[in-house]
Structures are given as structure tokens and as C-alpha cells.
């Protein structure tokens, strides 16, 4: 094993960002709402380059929950991409999914999770799954590259087949503890 | 179009909501924000399928309306939002401006108070914050105060016929909502989605 693996950004050859993009296409996702995160940077680029996907960069993740709701009300499927810290920002808003039974799939890249260097990321990173589940979200983790695509597929299916908030947490062990300046 | 908040006529939310909804002829969507904004929308026409009532999630009426507007570019979409609610989510004005959502109009009912919790003043009212000026500074060029009912009608007509996004600021009185929306969010979603499935 590479002794410095924990410090590395996702391998440029890693297949999973492109696999997630492929899943968005397969499930006819037409809107992608996001607060940028380095872990999703390649996926974001793919979405931005796709004229059939409307990418909305949000000012806060709360808006993203509203966009998922509005898209569904208007007849389109949407997903929310965010970092684990952003999960804390949108917890109250998840009530929308429950009271109206609207699908809300979230793809969360983890910080404060595995080998984190920034102490400020630890409390929310450690609480991400617990608070999502406390708000009735079905949460699955993916901690190996090969787990990501099937888990994201399951998360999208669960949301749109059972009309509730769902999330895949993509572990920092896959993303790398540091990703700054790297794609 | 009125540029400043001086000399604005103080209007009534229930009356203007009724006036707005009565003038919609092309299955326009209307998203009523938390509390009095959706109560008065309910009161304006509770049989209208294109109305959606947001019971919680304070501040999200405009972002929900934006999601609908992006999904249905041919349909005009209105968000009815209170000043206190919008203050919670001011960033959405930049998001709406950045997406240049042509078919979206955000109506801001500004009474300077949290009416439903006892009429406490907002910090924006204390600071004389101009919400329409914030909208313009956020990049929404078509943002204006309605000086009176006639100008409100004219601004709505403009929002219905020209590219947005639009923001219409309305100074309103402190009257509580006159109606209470039913508490069946599943039904709101179902009837709204059925209405949205019909062509514009």
C-alpha cells in the first residue's frame, strides 16, 4: 500500500466520478444542485458540460433542498451534491421531503471522517450520518472506490421509488484526506 | 417603477394576493411562503391547483419556485414571500440572478415584522434595509417597489410578459392572515403536480 495514500486526491484515473455521472444520466437526472466540494469536482465538470443537466450552484445547501422539491413538483428529477459540513446546514429543511413525500437524493463527500487534518471539520463530519438519520434519511456509506457506484445507484433508486430523503456518504478514505488544488 | 421606499402606499397582503391570483390566466404556478403568505394564498383561491403551500422551511419559497421554474421554462412561476423569510435566505437572490431564471417572479410582502409570532420587528426594519435594493445589488435588474395597487398590477403584468427574473416589493400593513391553510401537505403536492402536468 502507498504509505502516503491518505494525503492524495482521488486518482485522476479513478472511475467513480464518471460512474456517478453515468448514473445521473441513467436515472434521467435533469437538475443538479450543489455547493462545490473538491471531492465532487470532476463530477461537477461533467455535469456543467452536459446541456441536458441544469447545474445550480447554491449559496447554501438549504436552497438545494428547495430546488430538489421544486424540480420534483415541476416534473423533473434532481440530486444534491454537497460536503458533509453542508448537511448540517440543511437539516430543518428535510421536513419538506417528508411532509410532501418528495424524493431527495443527496451525494455527500465526507470531511472530518478519515484522517482529517482540520479540527473544525470533525464535529460535523462525525455527526453527519446521525443527524441525517435523525431526520429520517436513508443513509448508506461507500468507503471503497468500487462501492461508490452501486451505493449511489441504490440511493437514487430509493429516493425516487420510495419518495423520501436518501444519502450516500462517500468516505474520506476514498476521496483522500487532502484534495486541495487537485482534481 | 418606484426606486425608493419613500412615499410607498401601504397595501394589504390578502387583497393583493387575491388580485394577483385572479389575474393569472395561463396556469401560472404560485408558491406561498411560510405562514401568512400561504394562508392568504389559500384564502385567495383554495381550489386553484397551481397554488403550492409551503408550511415550514422558512425562507425556501423562492428557491422552491426556482426549481419549478427551471423544470418548466414555459410556465410563469411566482413566489410569495415575507420580508422576514427572505432575510433568512438572501443568498437565493444571487442564485436566481446567476441562473437568470426568465420565468420567475418573487413577490416580497414587507411589513417589517414577524407578524405571526407576535409582531416583533425584523432587524431589517430597524436598520431600514431596502430589500428591493438588495435584489438589484444581487443582480436582479427587474426589481422594483410597487408604489400602489395600480403599480402592483403593472409590475405583475410586466412579470407575465417580459423576461425575468423579477422581484416586486410591496409594503403591507400588519394585518394577520385572514385564513388558515388546510394541513394536508400530501394533497397540496398531488394537486399541484397534477396541475403542473397540464400544458401552459
Automatic annotation (TrEMBL), chain A:
Single Gene Ontology MF annotation: carboxy-lyase activity
Signal peptide positions (record): none
Alphabetized InterPro entries for the sequence: THDP-binding, TPP_dependent_decarboxylase
UniProt keyword terms in alphabetical order: Decarboxylase, Lyase, Pyruvate
Domain of life of the organism encoding this protein: Bacteria
Protein name: Phosphonopyruvate decarboxylase
Species of the source: Neoroseomonas marina
